[in-house]
Amino acid sequence: MAEAVSNPSVDISPISPIERRNSLEKHLQTRPDPKDLKDRNILHDTNAAPSLQSKAQELERQRATDSLKKGLGKRPEREELVERNILPDSHAAPAIQGQQKELQRHMRADSLEQKLQSRPKPEDLVKEGILEANEEATKE
Asked: pTM of this prediction?
């Protein structure tokens, strides 16, 4: 305190009541509204006494924790999710599961194409007696 008095750059002159009131009014005009303070979690939306607010917050946090634990306890196992086709039956890293799925799709398409190429022609089926001559091989 003694240093502040001896320091010439600090103004220690008393503020007049009018200046004080003007300053207070100016600060009150720029004061954020209660909704903004609640949105920023500065002011809590509660009717509890200030001395009980911390306990109320702790109880609310504990309630949320208990709810999460209960929900996680009811969560189905991975095997059940795979059986229900919710999760893919893959042990690959999640980052490459999309590429793995795309590769499987291409492999199925190639296999189908190969089988279509090697299937017998309708004339061969007629010769073997599988199809009759007047039957259409493909139906539209």
From this structure: 0.40
